[in-house]
């Protein structure tokens, strides 16, 4: 830890919340160098949907390395890439009757967003993009322009040109239909809002505080994109890959986005990003958007090992059972502590505490008792539940027990001054 404090930039973040040196990890457990065990309700911010070191992923990686498989390939044809493309097509796209071209970008989510907005702008010959309040799309400058929270912005970074932030579903409370407002702005030639090339949204805003868009709202946005010839880009970087209970987060709404950004868990825990593009919008020239680390070979191998889980009943059953337990237990905790009902779906949930101080006290108490859980939201007051989808039922129950204990220890959480870490 001393070398981290001495050598690593001030920008470091999570290490400050969880100040220990982790050495090992398996499924939903981490261990530190003192041999302390932690339950992981954070899952690499949604990267470890299949848990740490899933045995199938591990075996496939070891085998690939053992056989001297290609480790770096830019966008050359490799056997690992072809296997991934074919697996993704047969396991994910075809059963959902989806037809997309896949673009591999540099392996971070923010890279995928950059590519998505560029290709949409080019295809629609317009530069404006609409994003939403509390959106989080990454930190490179194009993606940052779409990210709402002022905490990540600094006037000296340069302009946010060509982006408008409009109210997300529920932003003004349940009585206001923000999709209808957006439609009215688009219809009014004098509203000041240019017709955008794209509308970019997360179906559940994860970093933004677990704000869930209703299926009706998503369908209304899809309809206005059709009516005004706007590309609908769904950022499924955090809430795709099964996080909401289905592989894509938009499945329950029955909509078909024009572009989908996937990252985080798509690589089975290894860095990888993919942009799914409607073939009609695939207007790239060869090599027009590149990146040295696009198409991470080891991530192709890991992903090809993980995706077949989506065909297996045991995986689907475990996911459903875990999701039901979490929802029930978190809502019971919310009621017990006089908090608003838990927000979320599947295996992403948020518990809204009255203040950031209260949320920080609870996450600290959790950490001290062996549970890793993070906060989210504009005010940092939402406890964000994000365990691996594959968490063992007992481990999940134990983690929820620790959370309950931490909430009790920090009660009464409605009065900041009385928040006490045990
Ligand atoms: N979009 C969403 C919805 C995200 O949650 C994140 C990461 N938290 C990003 C984009 C950016 O991804 P990355 O940090 O890999 O650049």
Top keywords for this entry?
13 helices; disordered C terminus; 422 residues; 17 strands; 7-stranded mixed beta sheet; 4-stranded mixed beta sheet; alpha/beta; 15% strand; single chain; binds 4'-deoxy-4'-aminopyridoxal-5'-phosphate
Q: Any overview of this molecule?
A:
The protein has 422 residues and is an alpha/beta fold. The protein is built from 13 helices and 17 strands. The protein has a seven-stranded mixed sheet. β2 and β3 form a beta hairpin. The longest helix has 24 residues, at 313-336. The two termini are 24 Å apart. 47% of the residues are buried. Mean pLDDT is 95; it is low at 416-422. The structure holds 4'-deoxy-4'-aminopyridoxal-5'-phosphate (PMP). Residues 45, 108-110, 113, 136-138, 202, 206-207, 235, 237-238, 263 line the site of 4'-deoxy-4'-aminopyridoxal-5'-phosphate (PMP). Residues 45, 108-110, 113, 136-138, 202, 206-207, 235, 237-238, 263 line the site of 4'-deoxy-4'-aminopyridoxal-5'-phosphate.
Briefly characterize the structure.
The chain is α/β, with parallel strands linked by helices and 422 residues long.
Please give the largest β-sheet: 7 strands, mixed
Q: What is the count of DSSP helices, taking H or I runs of 4+ residues?
A: 13
How far is it from the N-terminal to the C-terminal residue, by CA?
24 Å
Which band does the percent of strand residues land in?
Answer: 15-25%
Based on Cα principal axes, name the global outline.
globular
Residue-averaged pLDDT, rounded? 95
Bound molecule kinds, no repeats: 4'-deoxy-4'-aminopyridoxal-5'-phosphate
Radius of gyration in whole Å, from Cα? 21 Å
One letter per element, helices H and strands E, the order comes to HHEEEHHHEHEHEHEEEHEEEHHEEHEEEH
Strands of the largest sheet, in order across it?
4-12-11-10-7-5-6
Catalogue the unreliable spans.
416-422
Q: How many strand units? A: 17
Structural class: alpha/beta
Q: Give the fraction of residues assigned to helices.
A: 25-40%
